[in-house]
Amino acid sequence: MSIQPPRVVPNSATRSRFEDLVHIDTTGGVLEGSLAIPQPAVGVVIFAHGSGSSRHSPRNRFVAEVLHRAGLATLLVDLLTADEERQDAITAEYRFDIGLLADRLSCATDWMTLTCAKHDFRFGYFGASTGAAAALVAATHQPCIAAIVSRGGRPDLAGASLTQVRAATLLVVGGRDVAVIELNRTAYAELRQASTRELRIIPGATHLFTEPGALEQVAQMAADWFVRHLSPTTHVASS
Predict the structure, then answer these.
(1) What burial class does residue 225 get, using C-beta atoms within 10 Å of its C-beta: 0-12 exposed, 13-18 middle, 19+ buried?
(2) Which residue ranges make up each domain of the chain?
(3) Is the whole-model pTM more than 0.85?
(4) What is the pLDDT of residue 94?
(5) What fold, for 9-231?
(6) How far is CA 206 from the centre of its chain?
(7) What are phi and psi of 5, to 5 degrees?
(8) Rounded CA gap, 112 and 119, in Å?
(9) pLDDT greater than 90 at residue 39
């Protein structure tokens, strides 16, 4: 996919939250995203949404708000074009196309690298459901990715790419999401090349972490993980 110069459209409705509407031009079409860069920022996290979801996901937006308070910039990006989203809502033909989603996420990463060229940011991915698989695959082609967090993800769908992931990877699963726990345990075993890896299970939580306090735990775990692995001090210590 070709990468075009960044285009940012100010969004006055959310400007108090440092958020702008952005358009990312690719050979497959135009992707829309929500970009927020708090001041100061210590790193960047790009969100890969799950099947049937979008950058408007209230769960991911909640997590993004927590990351902002931790000093992390975020890009919540729709990995499908508007036309593809309409088609997918009818046929579900794109949401499990991990190769396509990973390519789009990699494209968004290249765009974000250009956007943040004047900063010495390290980058991370936050993936939910099938978006977690896309994040893991994309990370194998993006050496700038230092950390990954999966929320209720399907890392198993990343297949052979799991053995090539080098970024620090945190897998978070609800304790009542039994089938997904097993899929994450299997994927965890394959993440042998990751600089560090952890599998954390939140007791009593289901797949979407709708139980009181469950999503708050996910968000705080993610913020801690990204600050730990994306902060400049970590960069210096590991170089």
Answers:
(1) buried
(2) 9-231
(3) yes
(4) 86
(5) Rossmann fold (3.40.50)
(6) 20
(7) -55, 145
(8) 11
(9) no
Burial class of 166 by CB neighbour count within 10 A (0 to 12, 13 to 18, 19+): middle
* Separation between Cα atoms, residue 155 and residue 25, nearest integer Å: 27
Query: What is residue 237's predicted lDDT score, i.e. its pLDDT?
Result: 43
Q: pLDDT grade, residue 239 (50/70/90)?
A: very low
> What type of residue is 127?
G
Q: What is the pLDDT of residue 17?
A: 53
Number of other CB atoms surrounding residue 6 within 10 Å = 16
With 90 as the cut, is the pLDDT of residue 181 above it? yes
Structure tokens at 103: 């390519």
The answer to whether 122 and 230 are in contact (CB under 8 A) is yes
- In whole angstroms, what is the distance from residue 182 CA to residue 74 CA? 30
Find out whether 44 and 89 touch, Cβ atoms under 8 Å: no
> Phi and psi dihedrals of 25, rounded to 5?
-85, 125
User: So what's the pLDDT on residue 1?
Assistant: 36
Locate 124 and state its tokens: 């991370």
Rounded CA gap, 239 and 228, in Å?
15
- pLDDT above 50 (res 238): no
Amino acid at 179: A
Cβ-Cβ contacts under 8 Å for 228 (sequence gap 6 or more)? 147, 168, 234
| Residue 128 CB partners (closer than 8 Å, separation 6+) | 47, 48, 49, 50, 53, 57, 59, 60, 150, 151, 152, 153
Question: How do residues 69-91 score in pLDDT, each as one tens digit?
Answer: 999 999 999 998 888 888 888 98
Nearest to 51 by CA among 94, 105, 102: 94
